[in-house]
Write a structure and sequence with these properties.
Oligomer: heterotrimer
Number of strands of chain A: 7
Structural class of chain A: alpha+beta
Chains: A alpha+beta, B alpha+beta, C alpha/beta
Structural class of chain B: alpha+beta
Radius of gyration of chain A: 17 Å
Distance between the termini of chain A: 29 Å
Number of strands of chain B: 33
Strand order of the largest sheet of chain B: 10-12-9-13-11-14-15
Largest sheet of chain A: 7 strands, antiparallel
Largest interface: B-C, 47 and 40 residues
Number of domains of chain A: 1
Helix content of chain B: 25-40%
Strand content of chain A: 35-45%
Chain lengths: ~160, ~800, ~240
Amino acid sequence: MGSLSVEVVGKFGSKEDANKLLYAPITTAATFRKSRVYQLQFDGDEGEAKGFIDRCLVDQYADEVSLDQDSYFNEYQFYIDYGMKPGALDLEKEAILSSQKGDDGNGFKLLSLKLLQRVYIFSELEISSEPFVRDVCNPAIHVWSVIDSNGRKIA
Amino acid sequence: MEEKLPNQEDKKSFYEIPIRDLDPDGLLDLSEKMKLSLSVDDMIEIQLYYASAMRREPTDVELECIAQTWSEHCKHRIFGARIEHSSPQGNEVIDSLFKTFIKGVTERIMEKKPGFVLGCFVDNAGFVKLDDDQAICLKLETHNHPSAIEPYAGANTGLGGVIRDILGAGKGAKPIASCDIFCFGPPDTDAQSIDANDVIHPLGIMRGVVRGVRDYGNRMGIPTITGAIQFDPSFIYNPLVFCGTAGIIPISDIDKEMSPNLRVIAVGGRTGRDGLKGATFSSMALDTDSHEEDQQAVQIGNPIEEKKAADFVIEARKENLIEFITDCGAGGFSSAAGEMLSEVGGNLYLERAPLKEPGMTSWEIFLSESQERMVLAVKEEFLPRLKELADIYETELTEIGDSDDSGILKVWHNGELVCELDNSRLHDAPIRQLKSSFERGEIQKYEWSQTDLGDDLLNVLGDFAIGSREPIIREYDHEVQGNTVLKPLAGKSGDAPQDSSVVRIDGSDRLMSIGLSLLPEWGKTDPLAMGKATVDECFRSLIASGANPEKIALLDNFCVGNPDDSRELGMLVETCKGIAEAAEAYSAPFVSGKDSFYNYFETDQGPVSIPTTCLISGMGVIENPSHVTGASIRNSNSVVLILGTTDSKMGGSVYARIKEKTQEEVPHANFESALNDYKKFHKAVSEGLILSAHDVSEGGLGVAIAEMAFSEVGGVTIDLEELPTQGEMSNAECLFAETPSRLLIECEPESLGQLEKIFEGSDCSVIGKVTTKHQNLSINVGSKNVLEVGISTLKEKWKNVLTPYY
Amino acid sequence: MEERPNALLLKFPGTNCDFETARALEASGFSTTILPIAAFKKESLNSVKLVVLSSGFSYGDYVMAGRLAQLETQRKVGDALTRFRDNGGYMLGICNGFQILTKLGLLPEGSLIDNTSGRFICKWVHLKKNNDQNAFLNGLPETFELPIAHAEGRFVAPDGAAESYVENGLAALLYHDDVNGSSSQIAGLSDQSGRVLGLMPHPERFLWDSHHYDPNWQGDNSGWGAGYMIFKSIYNTIIKE
């Protein structure tokens, strides 16, 4: 069984005011960027798996792709990875899996797929992740983790 | 006695629950343990049924099923209750609010207007006649508690659910338009002021709810054409989310009937544990625990699943393949099967239902409210074609049961009979006995001193109650299906507000207008006046758009705090009286409605209830495309008239709230003169004499005239001396009182003679003119100017109320 | 007798503008069939003159707009659409249809991504023609209005490509204003053959004057709108051939 983790970032995106994510504004100047993370487990050829990623998950004109374990952006204050919690419907995942059903073959079989939304917060000053977690994630449907600037998981 | 409840270690999929020997405490204990939300009286009734009629113990499936059927959400037991009501008018006993103030009114109107209402209160939606071939229908639902916990998912499934109501109306109506109405806390609420953990900030609620409606409605391809938002701190803990959908159906496909030997099929999404306990959950109050415990109650909608099912249903109905259809809403298969098989009888086989996950017990499958499911009864000979259609539209179709002539619903699971209910007894929930009281608060008449009216008008236009909803409207595809002819925004730059929205109907010369009104601020002081005014405003907005006053039907949707508090129930009783009186006066029948109770929240400082909220929505028939009338000024040399008189009562008004003078009397509508005026207005519309018209509502005349001028055709000069009033009034009262029953009208100067004739005997005056000489709103009293502000300044303020937040 | 060339409207799960698009095709002279993709067969394209991908949210547009429809079309239809064009057939993609045609590689290199505002936008826009010869646009005035309704309408392309599409006329339709961040304000794009057009605005929603957001309410609104002219242009082109 092979596994791959891929981070996809929009080439044409740019840092935006972090207050857009919040319901009650903060005074510290901060910006954010979003990316999508796909974690695959599969049977068969890794080349085929990468082909699947390019064919299905990535826009060749508009996306940058990173297959590294490291995060795409650096010098963030923290980032939040969040996804649907077990039992909550992940529409994108379901759509990908049902589309891929027709394509298993060539020695490649997708065994599991996990989708995460990643939100990077950038700031000159130290900044708490708490309001961002509160307003971006909802325990009713999400699970999440927060990684600080040293790469430590802090929540 | 051994008490046995299902638990996960057991492999059995259903259980017998001994109840015949329990004492009242034991019964209540059982209700709480099983989360049945049933009272002691309810449990005793059930005990009696099993002890005397059935002579056996119930199964867990049966108890869950009865609890579901008797829940407030499904059975509307408060609207059916016997209420002892006391008010300044004396004491009275009301035998069912529904029968007295809703159904009774409609029955009398139906007698006066035979052939207009083609179905009400029975099916999923109310139907009225559009033309000789087609009927229109409308349904509104609330999804408050799920939206408080997960706004996106809550609103998304709220809209998804009401769309299924329409798909299940008649033999399958085609959804043609949606509307959404929200009550939120102000978006600028100080986060520190929220007295409870885990309550989502009003701005988060608003963003989530709007996106939820957007993503479901847009993907379904149903235009969201109209709506409203109320902002008030009393909605911080308990936001209200109403979603409505309108449909169209051939008249010959309205009536549906079950008969023996039909196949029962399920179409659409699969059944899972995700949809458990939704209906009983929404019949309970929220508290901080709700946000932790009941997370499973919040489902996420899958609009494409529903779109595929909808395409299937509409095609199957067109090919005459459907005998009976209903949605799987609250109660899931139990209520769908109950509706279909309760009269004729039949069998349901739970093991056949396609599941999202293995290991579900009988009651879980039977009661699950998983989204995007429809249940149909069809003739066996049509099954092959139906399967073919399901393949073409890529939706799952499963035969799950059949009808017979036994009169008894039998539910089987892997060969075992898990539920057998004599359906004639099933719906007999005990009638609740309630007490209510209403006392008028202290009334005060204020001085509305001559302040700077220009500043005042800017402040009112800049209030959350009035400011433009454009940022939200643009996120909704309000033009899909290509029939939205009067859009929510019009005028030269396509950004000026309209009253009702109008859709054309394929295959008909007639059109459908959808309007609505809610005035929770009025109800705080005078719920009777609120009831009257909401009906009047909804009716009037439909008339303004060109609807025929003889062909308007209404829906009533209520949201109430704690009905066990006699004062809150008293507000509801008074509101019901108000809407009944107005509907009867206008001969506008109620054809559908819904109520939502327990909209209160236990904060750290005690319970916070919403104000009693009554949403009146309506559908009106427009006879001819040329009758469609918008609310934006057309011509730069036209004249402006007002129809209806203005009185000085400022209670309930936006202006009074801004000035913090909220104890004043609330105006009451005068239906007799109003109806006459509306009929005359419609005559003028039919004769092509009206260029544009706008209802005068929240914000009063000042706001209404500014909104009309936002079409940027020219400046407007108004003379308040010409305004028909009841007695002496200050300029502020003239501009900001929210007296019901008034319409602003724009016409060509040449039409004045004809209009004067039509409006003879009415309070109708020319109060102003449109001009190219300036681009201001210029308000005079005789020769004295009292307000002079550039229309672009007013518009700028009005347009940027929500933009910092959404 | 009036000639009614055949138009085939391919429908995916989530396609939702098929009805009104078919209505527009019928009104402009086509005989129209709406075909769900699950029912597609090789012979479905026989005697068809125009293939239309109407708008909606094919497969929910999850992952990115048009991607899952592209994959399904490649599975089900293979290269039949390319051959159809090469054999002289015309293709029109509206909104989601434009996104799908782009993903299928039937239009010049590029992609339609999230609007710069990050929002869905439903509003009317001013458009200008950038190619008088285009078979779908030749009956239209230089400028006209149509409604848009999309979240992913920002056209992006490799460096310099968008500018070259404007220069060589492949970018047949441009926004008058910057409405969604589209490179060079491209609203519609045709392929080299000129027989394929994709556009984000919705011509099927401006069939009659009464569709306009600010009509003369008391006047006669039964005249044809600019959207109709697009369908009529391609109809006229086809019957002249």
